[in-house]
Amino acid sequence: MRAAAAASFHLAPATNPAHPRGSTTDSCSLKPAPTAQPPRLRSLARRAPLVCASLGISHDKGSDISDPNVVGQNDLLIVGPGVLGRIVAEKWQKEHPGCKVYGQTASKNHHSELTDLGIIPSLKGTTIHQKVPHVIFCAPPSSSDDYPGDVRLAASNWSGEGSFLFTSSTALYDCSDNSMCNEDCSSVPIGRSPRTDVLLKVENVVLEAGGCVLRLAGLYKIDRGAHVFWLRKGTLDTRPDHIINQIHYEDAASLAVAIMKKRLRSRIFLGCDNKPLSRQEIMDAVNKSGKFDTKFEGFTGTDGPLGKRMENSKTRAEIGWEPKYPSFTEFLGISS
């Protein structure tokens, strides 16, 4: 039995639930990597506007950072070092003592926090004079006016030697009505919605660059996730039996690190805990746990899709990974 990280959680001002990221391709199966990566990287760099020859994004934004040391073979650039990116940084630093971790952000608001975490912060548009061997893109679409362009720029900062990983979303697997869905399930088609179309383009950019995609289920921790959003609402006019797939932030980060260490090329992986729960089961667990001061009242809707049941045994077998928190209920400490 696993206990949650905090004994009690006090609700703060409302925030939106964790933003799913992702896109789609014609197939979400685990595909063999193409071999000729350097020409693709050069091609992507040529297509990106105002891209510097090294780790820069733009000549007319940001500043110029010169590191006196040669970039190390385990150095990492995190584009969008938010909650997930910071946990990735911590785990990567433990795996690779002495490495440098760069964090690229849209503003300077949290740069002092990143510095305290041992992350070298910079803005979009900052030039670091050497490309890095490892890049992970964690920034959500909501923070960008040109999401595919931002990913192309991130790809141009990758040396091609280690790994390039984009965190995507399981929302892009085309199944519903409680259907089982795994790595071999097809993706939603182009044209279904502007949101999924943008994400489709981003995944294609990553795969063309030789990078990998990690499609993540709903991220959560004690004070973030769908359960927090619903708890603040009290009641929601949505069906209680809709299926939700989740993964703890720590597990998403550990899976991302494990994938990057494999140095694979042009692959799509799936991140989930293999324990899908209905909305009602999630909030029953929240109420039962005793870790929150507020009780959820209920779901009142009867219409809408039933969702899907995600399963990622292929990813686990290939990467050699298992989650620390096998389910949301075990995270809350109410089941073995």
UniProtKB/TrEMBL annotation:
Keywords: Isomerase, NAD. This is NAD-dependent epimerase/dehydratase domain-containing protein. The keyword Isomerase applies. Residues 6-42 are annotated as: Disordered. The lineage of its organism: Eukaryota, Viridiplantae, Streptophyta, Embryophyta, Tracheophyta. The keyword ATP-binding does not apply. Belongs to the NAD(P)-dependent epimerase/dehydratase family. InterPro entries: NAD(P)-bd_dom_sf. GO terms for molecular function: isomerase activity. Coiled coil: none annotated.
